[in-house]
Design a protein that fits this description.
It contains five helices and seven strands; from the N terminus they run H-H-E-H-E-E-H-E-E-H-E-E. It is an alpha+beta fold and 217 residues long.
């Protein structure tokens, strides 16, 4: 199923990009807008498919983690912050990585930990319209902690108990302001369980949210 879904989607998106490049000199403003919509919509579909496939693997117990020793900053966080710089800049947000530990070495499954912070950083940017997003790494009580902190819209206190439930979003229905399938944080929680990590959240409506992932040393 993974191959059958991903392959045609990637072919469609890559083909549209090829046509876009071929029409560089003759393209009109409305055509540029159409290509932009294709890219954004295609990316949205792929993210949804990826989330559904990942959740399917986790629920059926077919996901097999591969635990290796790695540098949390150099092997995962630096690349993710570089990847999300452009989306942050498009919203005039400051995205920074702040490291206050000299030995961020952990034994984890690289793919799932990368997915944890990919979802957290992506959400922080999505729900923040002004200000900044900070990824803070530091030592505390024989553990390494990573904060993803934003100055966004915040989360209502009554919704916090449902935050990690599948297909749950604070805004429901077709009129919701933000896109998404409600699987991102559910996957984050599952991937934390796989790696024996603790995740905490603090949030104030109108001021922002802080997700903290704790890696035992």
């Amino acid at each position: 199923m993974s191959h059958e879904i991903r392959t045609p989607l990637n072919t469609l998106i890559n083909s549209s990009q090829f046509v876009r490049e071929e029409l560089t000199e003759e393209r009109y403003e409305d055509q540029e807008e159409i290509f932009k919509i294709i890219q954004l919509s295609g990316g949205r579909i792929i993210r949804t498919v990826e989330s559904l496939l990942s959740m399917s693997e986790l629920q059926t117990g077919t996901y097999e983690p591969t635990v290796n020793q790695l540098n949390l900053v150099e092997d995962i966080l630096e690349d993710l912050v570089k990847e999300y710089k452009l989306p942050a800049e498009e919203k005039n947000l400051e995205l920074s990585l702040n490291v206050k530990t000299s030995a961020p070495t952990v034994d984890v499954d690289s793919y799932s930990v990368t997915e944890i912070f990919s979802h957290l950083i992506d959400n922080a940017i999505k729900y923040t319209n002004k200000g900044r997003v900070d990824v803070n790494v530091y030592d505390e009580n024989n553990s390494i902690k990573v904060e993803v902190k934003d100055t966004g819209k915040g989360i209502r206190e009554e919704f916090l108990p449902h935050l990690f439930e599948s297909f749950r979003q604070e805004q429901q229905g077709y009129t919701r302001k933000y896109e998404g399938n409600g699987l991102g944080l559910a996957l984050v929680n599952k991937f934390c369980e796989i790696n024996k990590l603790k995740i905490d959240v603090e949030s104030t409506v109108g001021k922002g949210t802080v997700f903290t992932v704790t890696f035992p040393v």
